[in-house]
Amino acid sequence: MSTTFLPCGEYHESYREDHAWWQTKFIKAKMALLMLVLFVGIPLVADSYWLSVCNQIGYTALGALGVQLLIGFCGQVTLGHAAFLAVGAYTSTLLILEFPWPKVLMDWGLAYPVSIFVAAIAAGIWCVLFGLPSAKVKGFYLILTTMAAQFITVDFVITQYISQIGGRGQAFSLPPGTIRIGPWVIDSDLKVYFMMIVLVILFTAVVVNLLRSRVGRAWVAIRDNDISAEVMGIHVVRYKLFAFFVAGFIGGVAGAFWISNLAAISPEHFPWFWSLWLVGVILIGGVGSIHGTIFGSIFMVVVMELLQMAVLPLAASYPKLLMDFLFIKEAAFGLAICAFMIFEPNGLAYRWWQAKNYFNLWPFSY
Amino acid sequence: MDLFLMTLATGIMVGGIYALVALGWVLIYKCSGVLNLAMGEMTLIGAYVSLSFYSMGVPFLLSMLFMLIIGFILGILTERIFLDRLIGEPVLTVIMVTVGLSFFFKGTLEFIWGTDTRTFSPPVFSIEPIHIGPVVIGQVYLWSFLAALVLLVVFVSFFKYTRWGLAMQATADDEMAALSLGVSARYVYAAAWAIAFMAAGVGGTLLGNINGLNISVGYLGLLVLPVVVLGGLNSVPGAILGGVIIGVLQNFCGAYLDKYFPGGVKEIAPFAFMAVFLLWKPYGIWGWERIERV
C-alpha cells in the first residue's frame, strides 16, 4: 500500500530519484499548492471558529502521529497515549510557571520553546518507562501495561500530586501573555494555527524520514515478526524502546503545544477517552500510513463538528440533546470505530491511495 | 487486627463479585478468542436495567430475572451484529471493535440514564451490619458474596454437566474438532456473549447495591482485566482466584497505604500490581504459556 504507481512515461535514471520524496513535477506542484493553501489560503479564508477547528485537527494529528508510529509501524499497541500528552503539557506548564528563568531567556521569549523541548524529553522518558514491559510481553498484555500507564500517570500521579504543586488547586491557569515564542505572544487562534502547522509539518517530516532509514526498517521488521527480526540481527528491545521514546517525544510536543490553546490545564483534558480517541483516529485513517494519521484526524474532528452543527437546530425543540451532546459524541465515536473496522479495515488512506493511483495511471490503467 | 480481618473479609466478598464478572470475560476469550474491553460497560448495562425495573416497583429478584433476559438478548445481538463478522481478523481489530462497543454502550447509557448517582431505593439489603466474632461486615457485602458464590457454582456446573456447556468447552479446546463433531461454533459464540452479558449484569447489580450506581461503576468492571491477567487469560479457576486476590489487594491498599499515598491508591493499586506482575509472570497463575515459532 505504500508504493504509488508512476504515470506512463516517467522513468527513474538513478537510485536517488527512485528514493526521492516527490518524484514527479506534478507531485512537486501539488505539494507547493498544499503549502500555499496551508500557509496562506486557510489563514486568509477561515474565521476564528474554523481556525480553532484546524488547531484541534493539528493537535489530534500530532498526538496520533506517535500512536501511529507505535501501533502502525512498530506493532506495539498503546491505549494510554494521553498520559504522555499529559506529561508533556504539565512539564511545560510547570516550567513556565515555576521555573526561575534567567532574565535573558525571558526577554527573548525563549521560555516556552525551551519548555516544549524539555517537556518532550520528559514525556519520551516517561513513555520508555512504560514501554519497558514490551521487552518481555506483547500484544494484549502490552495493551494492559499501557492502560496502567494512563491510570497511574493521569488519575494518580498528576491528579493527586502534580496538581498540588504551587497550591493552585485542580487546574493550572495560564495567565494571558505567559506563552511567548520570541517576540510573539501566542494569544489568538491564528498564531496558534501557525505554530500548529509548523509543528505538524516538522514532525511529519521527521517521522517519515525516520521510517525510511535503518531505524524505520527495523521497526517495520519488528512489527511484521519480532522473532524473525531478532534472528536477522535487530536489537529488538532497543528499537522497541526507541520507538516508545520517539512516540512519547511527539506526544510531549503535542501536549506542550496544546497549552498554548488553553486558558488552564487540568487532568480532565487527558482522560482515558482521549487515548482511545487517538487510537480510533489512526484506525479510521489507516494503520501503518502517515497519510492515514492526517486523514483520520481531519475526519474525526470535522465529523464531530458537523454532528454538533446537526444537533444545534434540533436542540431548540429538544434541549436535552445539547446537554447530552458529549454522550452522543461518545456513542457516535464508538459506532464509527466499529463500522470502520468491519466495513473499511484499511482505513481512509487506502481509498486515497486508490484514487491517487487511478488518476496517476489514467487513461491507461495497466 | 480487627482492621486486618475486616479488610480481608470485605476484600474476599468484593472479590467474589469481580470473580463473577471475570468469569464472563474468560468465557468469551476461551470460546471465541475475543479480548473484550467492553466488560465495564456490560456491567453497567445490567446494573442500570435491573435498577430501572427495581425503581418501577418490581421485586428485586424479579428485576434481576428481567435483567438476565435482556442481557441474554443484548449479548446475542452484540455477537451477531458486531463480532460475528470479525472472526479471523487480526487481534487489534477485534480489540478495537470492543473498545468502540464500549463507547457506544457508554454514550447510550449516559444519554438514557444521565450521570447522576442512582441508588436502589428502598435499599435491597438492610443496612444493619452483621457481627461475626470481631468482624463487622455490611449485609450488602455478605449477600452479594453469597449471590456471586451461588452464581459461580451455577455457571461452573453449567459448563461441566450440561450439553451446551460441554459444547462450549469443546469449542474452546479445539474449534476444528468441535465443528467436525457437529457443534455449531456460531451458536457457541453467541451463547458465550449472552452468558458474559448476564454474568456482568449480575455483577453490576451487586456492585451498584454497595455504593450506588453511576458511570464510574464501569471502572470497577474494568478491574476485570487485572483479575484475568492474574489468573491467566483462559482459566476459569484462575478467574475466581484472581478475583478474590484483586479484591483483597485492593481493600488492603485502601486500608493501609492510603495514609502514605493519599488519594486514589485503591483504584490504582490493581493496575500498578498488574503492570509489575506482567513483567514477572505474563501468563498468569494458570494460563497457558504460548510457545512461539517463526
List the helices and strands and how they pair.
The complex is a heterodimer of chains A (366) and B (294).
Chain A: H1 15-18, H2 25-45, H3 48-73, H4 81-98, H5 103-107, H6 111-131, H7 140-161, E1 172-173, E2 180-181, E3 184-185, H8 189-211, H9 214-224, H10 226-231, H11 236-258, E4 264-265, H12 272-285, H13 290-315, H14 319-323, H15 325-343, H16 347-361
Antiparallel strand pairs in A: 1-4, 2-3
Helix pairs in contact in A: 3-8, 3-11, 3-12, 3-13, 4-6, 4-7, 4-11, 6-11, 9-11, 12-13, 12-15, 13-16
Chain B: H1 2-32, H2 39-55, H3 60-83, H4 91-113, E1 130-132, E2 135-137, H5 139-161, H6 163-173, H7 175-180, H8 185-211, H9 217-222, H10 224-231, H11 236-257, H12 265-280
Antiparallel strand pairs in B: 1-2
Order of helices and strands of chain B: HHHHEEHHHHHHHH
Number of strands of chain A: 4
Report the sheet with the most strands of chain B, covering strand number, pairing sense and barrel closure. Answer: 2 strands, antiparallel
Helical fraction of chain A: over 70%
Globally, the shape of chain B reads globular
SSE pattern of chain A, N- to C-terminal: HHHHHHHEEEHHHHEHHHHH
Q: Mean pLDDT across all residues of chain B, rounded? A: 84
Count of helices of chain B?
Answer: 12
Uncertain residue segments of chain A:
none
- For the termini of chain A, the CA-CA separation is 17 Å
Q: By helix and strand content of chain B, what is the structural category?
A: mainly alpha
Folded structure, characterized:
The complex is a heterodimer of chains A (366) and B (294). Chain A is built from 16 helices and four strands. By secondary structure, chain A is mostly helical. Chain A has a domain at 50-271. In chain A, α4 packs antiparallel against α6 (111-131), α12 (272-285) crosses α13 (290-315) and α13 packs across α16 (347-361). The longest helix of chain A is centred in the first third of the chain and has 26 residues, at 48-73. Chain A is globular. The mean pLDDT of chain A is 86. Chain B is mostly helical and 294 residues long. Chain B has a single domain (2-280), classed as ABC transporter involved in vitamin B12 uptake, BtuC (Orthogonal Bundle), CATH 1.10.3470. In chain B, 73% of the residues lie in helices and 2% in strands. Chain B has a two-stranded antiparallel sheet. In chain B, β1 and β2 form a beta hairpin. Chain B starts with a helix and ends in a 14-residue tail after the last helix. The chains are: A mainly alpha (366), B mainly alpha (294). The interface between A and B is large, with 51 and 45 residues.
